[in-house]
Amino acid sequence: MSYLCLENVVKTFDKTEVVKKMNLEIKKGELVSFLGPSGCGKTTTLNMIAGFLEVDGGRIVVDGKPVHLLPPNKREMGMVFQNYALFPHMTVFDNVAYGLKLRKVPKGEIRERVLEALEMVRLAGYEKRYPKELSGGQQQRVSLARALVIKPKVLLLDEPLSNLDAKLRQEMREEIVEIQKKVGITTIFVTHDQEEALAISDRIAVMYEGRIEQMDTPVEIYNHPKTDFVSRFIGEVNQIQGQVVETYNGQQCKITFDGYEQVISKLGVKDSVMNFYLRPEKIQLAQTNREGLHVKLERKMFLGAKTRYILQFKEKQLIADISNTVLNPDLIKEGQDVYAVWNPEELLLVKK
Amino acid sequence: MRKVLPKAGLNLFCLLVYIFLAAPIVVVLLSSLTTTEYIVFPPKGITLRWYTELLDHPEFMQSFTLSIIVAFGTAIIATFIGTMASIAVVRYEFKLKTAIVQLVGSPLLIPSVVFGVALLQFYSWIGIAASPIALVIGHIILTIPFVMRLVVASLVGFDRSIEQAAMNLGAGSFKVFFQITLPMIKSGVIAGAIFAFITSFDDLTVALFIVSTDVVTLPVRIYTYMQYQYDPIITSVSSIMILLTFVLMVVIERVLGVGKVFASKN
Amino acid sequence: MQAEVEVQQEQEILYKQEKKRLTRKKLDSWLLLLPTLAIFIFFFLLPLFFLFITSFKTFDAGSGIGSEWTLQNYVKFLFDKFYLGVLWRTVKIGLLTTLVAIVISYPVAYQITKANGRLKNYLTLLVLSPLLISMVIRCYGWVILLSNNGVVNNTLMKMGWIDKPLTLLYTEFSVVIGMVHVLFPYMVLSIMGSLERIDPSVIRASQNLGASPIRTFFSVVLPLTLPGIFAGSVMVFSLAVSSFVTPAILGGPQVKVMSFLTYEQVTTMLNWPYGSAIGFLLIFIATITIVVYSKLLTRSEKGVAIQ
User: Fold this and answer.
1) What does the pLDDT read at residue B2?
2) Which of A244, A248, A277, A325 could covalently link to A348 via disulfide, CB atoms 3.0 to 4.6 Å apart?
3) The ABC transmembrane type-1 domain covers which part of the protein (chain C) (predicted)?
4) Size of the A and B interface in Cβ pairs below 8 Å
5) Interhelix angle for C172-197 vs C117-132, to 10°?
């Protein structure tokens, strides 16, 4: 049973459709990320859900009721803004209390709920401070508390972590997920950072040019990207070409990558060329003369837990990321000949 | 050595400029204390005689009160309607916007003398006599450009997402304006009001054309008095005005922080 | 099928609401503008328009404004040596004021930008404080300083440099001094603005390449602040040519400028048409300055960037 639905939602700016007939269903308590490059329509969609932009067509339904005709102040949605958007002339307490005051909640209860919310975001004791006296991370927590304290139907997060530094970003995102699960609130999280989206989401909606390319769990999105854009956008990929050598009863075919022959469970036409994506971490290297693609190690980069090997294969480059516990990076020298091998299941067919 | 010399030269030069800036003000303040019947600097002896003598000149007191009333009226009205117009200009799109913006900014370009003459002719044609209201109307036009510049500047740098946050929490547009927007552009609005007050209080050019024998603002009173008299009474009136300005500045500093007021001016 | 109808109905409501909102928005903006616009149209545009008409009327000794139409007022001004002299003096005073203001403002602006924290705030305040004190009083201070037995003359005589007082007051000199004093803060603010926009790394780069501080100043800092000087000059010049208070107090009838001439024609000669014509010529000069400035500015932005 879906809780938040977008039905054929359209948004047009100056005659260009920036959101094209979008359909989306989110279950109650689910955390869904909108992921995509800038200009893909993710923020526009979020602003339409929040009511800051009007829909030019279609409907938005929350909990069975259409809300797309309501002004933003009647939609009961909590929003956390990219730049926090705290009221600079109010203390932390007043910021969080603002929504409750507007709802005419009794004073005693306001106090109780505000303190509880601040406790939840681990900012107890900061009530009297002003926003400018807080660090970026703290401001973001206040913003989160302010959005949650009114017990909204949906929580909207607009790139909430993009103004924080790398380490704090990871801490905060874990905290956000923790709070979200505790409160059990339906949440939309807009981001352009795929790692962030993969780490926290129940499901991800990958958007491109005003459309949802694929909406699925992080694991599905990563392992089984449905469109060309999704394969390229999520994670890194090598692009390789293989030639179909033989086909077996329409279910499988044998492919050769410059002599490295593999049987894959995909439909192929004999003698045709097929394009594949292959994730760098799916490639293994072998020194001995085993069956594999003959490549030359051009350069290697030590990246901490893993090492990136840049391999020369004909005029093309192939990237392999291998954990240092699996392969000692000192073992292979630059300029050395090696064999690249992979599991044929990991080949992602490029869809034209 | 090579570095010290230009720096010392620069500081000396600036010091001379600061002295140049302060000179006429210091001279007025000090020469108001002279015991002589004529203005002399440095003053001969020290007395507050010229201040007590002011009591025999109730016309200065009347003019002072009138100037304060006119300046207050101007500041309040110009700030109020100027803020409204600024919001329209920054937040809305409408026809003739550029032309309207240029119109309300043009009193800065039109010489005040010409505006004064034009207003005098217009007032006499439609039969408006010299009155505080006639002065306030003229001064509103002189001060609106300042008010609008300051308020527009504070609105332009305004982060709209803060208003969206308030709306998102359930505030309607009136609540958003009075609880969020206005407190945040407060410094621009107050700075506008202060500039309007000072400009109105200081105006001689336009007032000169509008005043009559019994409605005379302080600058006009001082100007006409010193055409004929050269006694220290003028310096004592002026000193009181300077000291009042000083008090006003300290109050503003306490309430707002002067840095802020001028920061928003640029 | 029914759902489709519902959607259609909703779309219609949406469309109507949108239309209503747009008209309300339009109404809102005009309501917000109304008071300001009304005052400006009635008490600014209309009076100036009537005055413009007056400037094409003949002079009538009885009522001031005659009933005939004429171009005589403008012709009289433009072909009379005396009046052209006043025009020239006004422009000359404006130019001199601007020049002196640049020379004394630049070091001050430079010093303030270099200062840090509190000192910077106090210096800024010091420079701007004259703006808050009545112009009449400041000019009066200069009267005391520059009069025949004023401070300057007395000091010079005591030093034995002169034996009889110099005529300083009611000269072009005293008017320029007073104007510089009044308009100086505008120039400082303008130059400070452009000095503060200079990226400090540009200066470091110049020094890193081997330029001395003085060389750096002349080849990097000064060119980068030219737009600020330019903008300040336009402001100071246009305010100087149209100012009335300073020339009236420090120049008087001896140093007639355009604004004083307007005032005199209207209040003492009661020649309204001629006064109006002079006033509009003054507006013309002030406007021309601004227009030329913005033309030059757009050109410099298109071509070789000054900034």
Assistant:
1) 52
2) A277
3) 87-293
4) 67
5) 150
CB contact under 8 A, C10 and A54: no
How is residue B26 written in tokens? Answer: 């210091």
- Average pLDDT on A307-326 reads 88
Q: Cα(C78)–Cα(C89) distance, rounded to whole angstroms?
A: 14
pLDDT tier for residue C307 given thresholds of 50, 70 and 90: very low
Say if CB B89 and CB B100 are below 8 A apart. Answer: yes
Chain C nearest C-alpha distance from A51 (Å): 13
Number of folded domains in chain A?
2
Q: Are residues A60 and A96 in the same domain?
A: yes
Distance from CA of C7 to the nearest CA of A (A): 8
Q: What is the per-residue pLDDT for A70?
A: 86
Judgement on whether residues A259 and A145 belong to the same structural domain of the protein? no
Average pLDDT, chain C: 85
CB contact under 8 Å between C13 and A69, yes or no, is yes
Same-domain status, A176 and A265: no
Cα separation of the two ends of chain B:
37
Number of Cβ atoms within 10 Å of the Cβ of B140: 28
At a CB cut-off of 8 Å and minimum separation 6, what does A221 contact?
A: A198, A204, A206, A214, A230, A234
Residues spanned by the domain of A191: 2-233
> Residue C7 pLDDT > 80, yes or no?
no
Partner residue facing B167 (CB), from A72, A82, A83: A72
- The pTM for the full model equals 0.81
Interface test with C, best of A6, A48, A54, A70 (most C CBs within 10 A): A54
Is A57 in contact with C17 (Cβ distance < 8 A)? no
**A69/C14 Cβ within 8 A:** yes
Computed from CA positions of residues B212, B215, B219, B225, in that sequence, does the dihedral angle turn out positive or negative?
positive
Question: How confident is the model over A38-63, as a mean pLDDT?
Answer: 90
Question: Is there a single domain that holds both residue A47 and residue A82?
Answer: yes
* Radius of gyration, CA atoms only, chain A: 25
**A211 and A338 in a common domain:** no
pLDDT of C24 over the 80 cut: no
Residue in B93, B111, B202 closest to C242 by CB: B111
pLDDT tens per residue, range B136-163: 999 999 999 999 998 998 888 788 889 9
Model-level ipTM above the cut of 0.90: no
Q: Do B159 and A102 touch (CB under 8 A)?
A: no
* A173 and A304, same domain (yes or no): no
Is 80 exceeded by the pLDDT of residue B254?
no
Interface test with chain B among C41, C140, C259, by most B beta carbons within 10 Å: C140
Cβ atoms of B52 and B233 closer than 8 Å: no
Q: Examine the domain organization and report whether A216 and A245 are in the same domain.
A: no
Whether C9 contacts chain A with CB within 8 A: no
Distance CA B196, CA B210 (A): 18
At the topology level of CATH, where does B57-263 sit? MetI-like fold (1.10.3720)
Are A56 and A197 members of one domain? Answer: yes
Report pLDDT for C303: 41
pLDDT digits (tens, 9 = 90+) for B48-95: 888 888 888 888 989 999 999 999 999 999 999 999 999 999 988 888
Domain end (from A184, A201, A233): A233
> Residue C304 pLDDT more than 50?
no
Tell me whether C80 touches chain A (CB under 8 Å): no
Distance to chain B for C4, nearest Cα, Å = 30
- In DSSP notation, C94-120 reads HHHHHHHHHHHHHHHHHHHHHS-HHHH
Separation CA C23–CA C32 (nearest Å): 14
- List the CATH number of the domain containing A29: 3.40.50.300
State the architecture of C73-302 in CATH terms.
Answer: Orthogonal Bundle (1.10)
Inter-chain residue contact A87 with B162, CB threshold 8 Å: yes
- B220 at interface of A, judged by CB pairs closer than 8 A: no
